[in-house]
Amino acid sequence: MVQNSAGLLDMKKNIQQNDFVSFDLEANGLHRYPERVCLLQFATCQNIYLVDPVVIDDMSPLKEIFMNSSIEKIIHASGYDIRSLDRDWGFKIKNIFDTSIAASFTGSNRLGLNSILNEHLILNLSENKIFQKADWTNRPLSKNLIKYASEDVIHLKKLRDLLSSKLNKLGRLDWVIEECKILELIKYEHKDKETAFLSIKGSGVLEGKSLTVLSALYKFRDLEARKLDKPPFKIISDRKLVELSNNWIKEKSKLDNIDFNEDNFSFRLYKAFEQGINSKNITRPKMNKEIIKISHDDQIYMKERLEYLKTWRIKLAKKLNLTPSLIWPLSSLSRLAKKSHKLESELSDMSIRNWQKKMFSNDLDDYLKSLFQV
């Protein structure tokens, strides 16, 4: 357990003597708001370190480990971890090996850590939902939580070596290395406080006063969540928020005759309704998209061509024992289904990997020529 600055510095020195470190983290997003990282797990061949950011004020020494490109960071499904480190401390990570991505390129379908460990290392582990949903803010950590956190990193190096060996035999290790390199570009996207409510699922049907009320209720929910240190979904669900906004006249009238004091949740909700009702109507921002008119016949042909392209992708995926999405991005196939869109311009798109161009672009080009009868 690393619970002070001196211990953190000692850990950093020890990890820097290795060419790899396995890593994972635990956060409290299911229980607290705003979410924060509550534990960081590191493992070398000699030690497992559990770093406690709840009691350590200065976490900056970790930056040297994460940014050191000579130390490979072995992480499973790293996207969440990368965003969390960026959000809480502004840490970036260099030299990542993601075991989830690696497993997907060997043909694994179930990509949870336990599933992959069972498939590749034959460990016969079972999922423990209780620990996955624990509130990692609470101290002291129980022995069971410490054991669970340690086991998340203890097998990653062995898994990495086995997956690398399999990928090397398949000729796909370079594919995974390229995918993992792209992970370094991931960053945490901070929500715009004024427009965040527009991202709520189901809010697209709201306009005018209903949309304005949603904005006010969204801000009310955020304040309540921060005050109570609870995730927003535990205050009011997104679905309920949209329902309240869509039926604001009826929902506001339910509160009109309630006798409540100013400390009452219902009173604060009532005031949020009033604020939205009395505010100038919000206009949904217009998307700056170039509108291209496509005839009805062309739309039909585009759908047909897209289905043919998806068939091409599926056949290739089955041949290589990969999921179709790894072969070629669907968004790219959708663009290629347009007769005016050329493969040459598509190959410059950032969503197309170099390994995909090398492996599949010639085959795709031939398929497109036969499809368009060029």
Q: Explain this structure to me?
A:
- With 374 residues, this protein is α/β, with parallel strands linked by helices.
- It folds into three domains: 5-183, Nucleotidyltransferase, domain 5; 196-278, DNA polymerase, domain 1 (Orthogonal Bundle), CATH 1.10.150; 296-372, Orthogonal Bundle (DNA polymerase, domain 1), CATH 1.10.150.
- The protein has helices at residues 5-15, 62-67, 79-89, 99-104, 113-121, 129-132, 143-154, 156-170, 173-183, 208-228, 238-246, 248-256, 265-278, 296-320, 324-327, 330-336, 343-346, 354-372; strands at residues 20-27, 37-43, 48-51, 72-75, 96-98.
- The protein has a five-stranded mixed β-sheet with strand order 3-2-1-4-5, with helices on both faces.
- Strand 2 and strand 3 (48-51) form a beta hairpin.
- Helix 10 packs antiparallel against helix 11 and helix 10 (208-228) runs antiparallel to helix 13 (265-278).
- The longest helix is centred in the last third of the chain and has 25 residues, at 296-320.
- The chain is flat.
- The mean pLDDT is 93.
In short:
The protein has helices at residues 5-15, 62-67, 79-89, 99-104, 113-121, 129-132, 143-154, 156-170, 173-183, 208-228, 238-246, 248-256, 265-278, 296-320, 324-327, 330-336, 343-346, 354-372; strands at 20-27, 37-43, 48-51, 72-75, 96-98.
Cross-sheet strand order for the largest sheet: 3-2-1-4-5
Gyration radius from CA atoms, angstroms: 25 Å
Q: Helical amount among residues, as a percent range?
A: 40-55%
Low-confidence stretches: none
Total beta strand runs: 5
Q: Can you tell me the CATH topology of the largest domain?
A: Nucleotidyltransferase, domain 5
CATH superfamily of the largest domain: Ribonuclease H-like superfamily/Ribonuclease H
Distance between the termini: 66 Å
- β-strand percent reads 5-15%
- Summarize the helix and strand pattern as letters: HEEEHEHEHHHHHHHHHHHHHHH
CATH architecture of the largest domain: 2-Layer Sandwich
Number of helices: 18
What shape does the CA trace take?
A: flat
